[in-house]
Amino acid sequence: MLLQHVMQGRENQMQKNNSSVLMASTLSDVFFHLKSVNNLQILGGCTYISSLDEKSLCVKFIDELSQIEKKERYIDFGPSVTLSQIIQIRRTNLPEVLYDALITMASESVRNLATFGGSICAADPKIMIWSPLLALDARLEIRNQSETKYIPFSKYTGIPKGFILTKIRIPIDDWDIQIFKRVGPSSKLNDLSAGFTFLASTQKDLITNVRITFSGNTVFRSTELENKIIGAHFPLTSKFIGDVVKTASSLLEKNQEYTKMQPILRQQFLNLIQYSLEQLT
Ligand SMILES: Cc1cc2nc3c(=O)[nH]c(=O)nc-3n(C[C@H](O)[C@H](O)[C@H](O)COP(=O)(O)OP(=O)(O)OC[C@H]3O[C@@H](n4cnc5c(N)ncnc54)[C@H](O)[C@@H]3O)c2cc1C
């Protein structure tokens, strides 16, 4: 963790080991530095990065990037909000799967430093919030001095050069069932780490909406699988559940991308789909 290094005083610029850390206090400062410094490394809580580049810019203490705003249909988070600050909002005021993912991440002391933005910009889908963000149809706002772009989380592959993440918008929908499960070791990340999210809405005896995501070394979301479940009537039979699991299994086999998935992760994913559907019966 590099925060201690970054925090040696809060001067505007610090130098150590041939690397300079700039401290930004406004978004305009950030845009100025992004424009004037080539290959500027952005720093959040510094829990993921392993070394400082020649020039880095800490964005953790910018007010505009540290806000949380809850509206009727969505919540906006600034990227400098820490994971602990989100947890403090409490489960009842957040999409439950987001809260459930956050409390599995690292230790309390790491969560006090790690930022929401850093956990997204690290561009590592093993990080537990990826699966709920994908299932909840989160949207990212990225900016440079002259342009603002909005990226659906399903299309996100990393922050383009010269841009900074400025907002994370999470829709608030009425889900009747929300399930998040972490697989792999606890409080650290490795190749067996992944997050699973299942969301379902129901009306009388009918499933009206479903989202299923799995995010580890590879990221899975399939509208084909979701459409197979939407419209199903209760009670779900074991044959129906078995057919859904078979469809998921063949989707994993068909797509080259999923061959990266360890066999144990594939099996855990299929078991979690079965488990989630059983909660609906
Ligand atoms: C001991 C330990 C245990 C952990 N255990 C878990 C775990 O159990 N589960 C889990 O999911 N994760 C775990 N993690 C990973 C943790 O989730 C990440 O380290 C954390 O979310 C990164 O946030 P950060 O603010 O520290 O990012 P940083 O390290 O500051 O930055 C990460 C990346 O994001 C970029 N960045 C940051 N903010 C912005 C921005 N606003 N715009 C553009 N780019 C930006 C940086 O340039 C960098 O590339 C663990 C980490 C540690 C150290």
From TrEMBL:
<dbReference type="InterPro" id="IPR016169">
    <property type="entry name" value="FAD-bd_PCMH_sub2"/>
</dbReference>
<dbReference type="GO" id="GO:0071949">
    <property type="term" value="F:FAD binding"/>
</dbReference>
<feature type="domain" description="FAD-binding PCMH-type">
    <location>
        <begin position="1"/>
        <end position="175"/>
    </location>
</feature>
<dbReference type="GO" id="GO:0016491">
    <property type="term" value="F:oxidoreductase activity"/>
</dbReference>
<dbReference type="Pfam" id="PF00941">
    <property type="entry name" value="FAD_binding_5"/>
</dbReference>
<dbReference type="InterPro" id="IPR002346">
    <property type="entry name" value="Mopterin_DH_FAD-bd"/>
</dbReference>
<protein>
    <recommendedName>
        <fullName>FAD-binding PCMH-type domain-containing protein</fullName>
    </recommendedName>
</protein>
<dbReference type="InterPro" id="IPR036318">
    <property type="entry name" value="FAD-bd_PCMH-like_sf"/>
</dbReference>
<dbReference type="InterPro" id="IPR016166">
    <property type="entry name" value="FAD-bd_PCMH"/>
</dbReference>
<keyword id="KW-0560">Oxidoreductase</keyword>
<dbReference type="InterPro" id="IPR051312">
    <property type="entry name" value="Diverse_Substr_Oxidored"/>
</dbReference>
<keyword id="KW-0285">Flavoprotein</keyword>
<keyword id="KW-0274">FAD</keyword>
